[in-house]
Every structure is written in structure tokens, then in C-alpha cells.
Amino acid sequence: MDSPVDAIQSAVRAVTRYWAKQRKAEERNRNARLYRRRRLMRSERVTIREVAFDVMGEAYAVASGPQRLPVKPRQIMYVARPEILRRTGNLTLDDVYFTQTLLVDYMEEYDCSDWDIIWDARGHFFEPHTGREVALGTLEVRQYLGLRPSFDPPKLTLAFPTTGPENRYRNVLFIEKEGFHPILQAARLQNRFDIGLMSTKGMSVTAARRLIDKLIARGVERIFVLHDFDISGFSIFGTLGTNSRRYTFDNPVHVVDIGLRLPDVLKIGLQSEPVPVEHVIKWRKRTATLRRHGAMPDEIDFLRAARVELNAMTSPQLIDFIETKFAQHGVAKLVPENEILSQQARRVIKQRLIDDAITKIVDELIKKAELAPLPKNLRKLVQQTLKDRPELSWDEAITGIL
């Protein structure tokens, strides 16, 4: 049996346990003691969302700086986090909750369209013929669309200079998985059909939607969607061209579902795999999702117990499958207007004449270049140029000097 002293000590510890926990938190963050009363009196406690919305504007301004530079979502979180923890009395802040929910909700509610947020790339876009690859991130897509300095023209001298779909492609193939590009590249599928290729890690991200929207405004006609035969695949197809919390389309999107669908699975004889148990438990809600995105009754019955991945196809099967779908939808080579054809023909003639002329005098030009006098104080000129314009490299400085 405990002594009276032990009993008293146990009672005191039980009563002061919550207070002691708060005191330890205060030792880690002295500012928290100002909010001890609010922490202990739950009715007065402010929420993370309330404080986040209160400090979000200032946090963005600090992260962006006086120059209004682009910022990443986590940079805003790091600026806002100390104040959020101080005012709520919490010890931690879930960065995913902040960047994916609180920040997005705030930007929608307060119309932060002028905020320059850099969302991470979660996919890639590939042009046909040019070899141009664009990561599906905020800055990369912005550069590709010409909102920032555009990419250099294609390296091939005789190629018609393009950046974007004009005179290059008018259809895009969207694949819900990354990693298929080397297969399509080996089969030269993009070049043979003049089609852009977009791939993402699952659901489409804001950068992908923005790119699709702007490409449509510049002449792209259809977005062909290739996806797994499962609930996620139907959702990816069904939501690709629709408005979301983060992005509202300016242009109508013509999205074409090319599979996988159940007839494709049965025709090719693809292997299926069972779905998790929790998938079946939530089946009523998932059924509604499938119906909303165009699944047929027999497909819904199949997906209740199994799913089929694109990876179940061999590489030849995948190429044959896409080619068959393109043929069904009349995907054809792009031939520009006569004016563009004439411009390109003149460019080819001009370039060949220049090449012929240079070939005849190239040896003489090389000798002249070797004998041309250089500034005696070249090093000092380079150093002075770099001092005046530190953003240049030394070889760029020489080019400017000469």
C-alpha cells in the first residue's frame, strides 16, 4: 500500500501532467508561454488554418523579396511556420497540409493570380522532330509557352524554326505514367504521327493543365489519353480537361479516351491483378466515380475485383495499340499552309548557297582569323567587363569586347 506521501505525489503528477507538457513546449519555444492560457483553454484556441490565412500574404512577400522573385511553396511554409506554431501553441506543422491545402485554398479565396509560385515538375512534355523536352513544372512550362525567354531554335540548320505547336504538331498523346518515352522514341512514333507527348506521375498537375490550355489556344486540336484500366485511370481521363481547385481552363479541351478499356484488355488478352481489400470496401463511392468518367456497367463489374496496367503490354503491343487507335481517329501528318512551305523552301535554298560560298573561302577565312590582331590588354578588358557586368561569363565578355 502506498504511503500518504506517495499518494499525494501521484495525485499532483496526475493533475499537473498537461501543464508540465506545456512547460516543456515553452522551453523549446519561449514565445509559446504567451499562449499557454489559450492552449489550456480549448475554447479560445486558434486553428492552424486561421493563423495561416492571417500570415500567408506577408509570408509570400518575405519569401519573394523586394525583387518579387519566384518562390517555391515550401519557402512560404518556412517563413510562415514560426508564427503559426507560436500562435497556435503547436510543436509541428505538416508541410504537405500547408503547401497542398492551406496555400492552395488561400490563393483561390484571395485571388493571388499575381503570385509567382514554382510548383515542382511531376511529368514531361516532348515535341516531335525538334527533340525539345519540357519538365512539367511552373517555370519550365512558362518558358516553353514564351512567357519568359523562349528556347533556342532547333539545332538542325535546315529545320523550320518553331517553339510550340504552330507548324509542328496539332495533337498530343497524354500518358498517365512516366517512362514510356524511350519506347515511343525507338519506334519513332512521335515523328511518324507529328504528335506531342505528355506524361505525368498519375493525376494531371496544374502545369500540365496550363500547358494543354495554352497549346489548344495555339492550334492543338485533340488530347489523346492513354491510361491504366482501373479507377485511377478513369479519373485521370475524366478530370484532365476539367476545371480544378488550382486551374480553370480558358479554352474547351477535346479529350479522347484511347484506353485501356475492357474490350482492349479482352482483345489483347492482358493479365490482370487483384485490387486491395479496402478498394472493395469503398466500392459504392468508387462506382459513382467510374460512372461519372464514362465506365460501362461491365467495366465496373470487372474493376470491382481486378485492374490492368499499361505495363501488361509488351513494347510491340504498346506501339501497335497506339498506332491502331491513331488510325481509328484519323491522326495524320501535318502539312502547313502554302506560305509556310514556300518560306521553308527559300530558307533551304538560302542556306545551301551560304554553305557553298563559305566552303570556297573557308581556308582563307581561317588564315585571316589567325592573323587578326588582338587587343594587347585583353585580360584587363575582360576583367573590367566582368566587373561592369558580372552576370557574363569570360567568353561572353570576349565576344562583347571584339
Briefly say what this structure is:
By secondary structure, this protein is of the alpha/beta class. Helix content is 53%, strand content 7%. 24% of the residues are buried.
What does this structure look like?
The strands form two sheets. A six-stranded mixed β-sheet has the order 2-1-4-3-5-6. The chain has a two-stranded antiparallel sheet with strand order 7-8. The chain has helices at residues 4-28, 36-40, 48-64, 73-88, 95-109, 138-144, 181-186, 189-193, 206-217, 231-239, 262-268, 277-281, 283-292, 297-303, 315-328, 338-371, 378-388, 394-401, and strands at 123-126, 133-135, 171-175, 195-200, 222-226, 255-257, 273-274, 306-307. The chain is α/β, with parallel strands linked by helices and 402 residues long. The chain folds into three domains: 4-109, no CATH class; 123-328, Dna Topoisomerase Vi A Subunit, Chain: A, domain 2, CATH 3.40.1360; 338-401, no CATH class.
Number of strands: 8
Distance between the termini: 97 Å
- Which consecutive residue ranges, at least 5 long each, have pLDDT under 50? 14-21, 24-43, 148-156
The helix-strand sequence is: HHHHHEEHEHHEHEHEHEHHHEHHHH
Report the top-level CATH class of the largest domain: Alpha Beta
CATH third-level topology of the largest domain: Dna Topoisomerase Vi A Subunit, Chain: A, domain 2
The number of distinct structural domains comes to: 3
- The portion of residues assigned to helices is 40-55%
Radius of gyration equals 30 Å
Beta-strand content? 5-15%
Which architecture of the largest domain does the CATH hierarchy give at level 2?
A: 3-Layer(aba) Sandwich
Judged by helices, strands and strand pairing, the structural class is: alpha/beta
Give a short account of the largest sheet.
6 strands, mixed
Q: Taking all residues together, what is the mean pLDDT?
A: 83
| Shape, per Cα inertia axes | flat
DSSP helix count?
18
